[in-house]
Organic hydroperoxide resistance protein (Streptomyces aurantiogriseus), 137 residues
Amino acid sequence: MDALYTAVATATHGREGRAVTNDGKIDLALAMPVELGGNGQGTNPEQLFAAGYAACFGSALGLVGRQAKVDVSDAAVTAEVGIGKQGEGFALKVTLRVELPDSLDEATGRKLVEQAHQVCPYSNATRGNVPVELVIE
């Protein structure tokens, strides 16, 4: 694959540090969430992953919608990224909640969401590694 764009970010001090992109557009404190024993005074990798996945999936949905000549511009995608113990390490799970326009029938909506799941780079990266549940609302 020839990359069309490459994002570059550096994190220091792991989950209790800072994440900065090379262009300075992201520069934020990282902190363990309270649920994992941290102080919650910063963002965490799961929140960043959720935001990226939701945005990327929304773009993929827009692409397949345009190809099908179906307006999904009012759709919203919420990504829920869970982390938990798995064996000796940790693993992720994802639920993508897709709110489609009321004007879209259920069958067409489901088809577009499933097509977006095949197109989205985040979906392709997680496929076979991270369970992803698609929920249409």
Remarks:
- The CA atoms of residues 118 and 127 lie 9 Å apart.
- The chain has a mean pLDDT of 97.
- Strands lie at 9-12, 18-21, 27-29, 76-86, 89-99, 132-136.
- The first helix runs from residue 45 to 67.
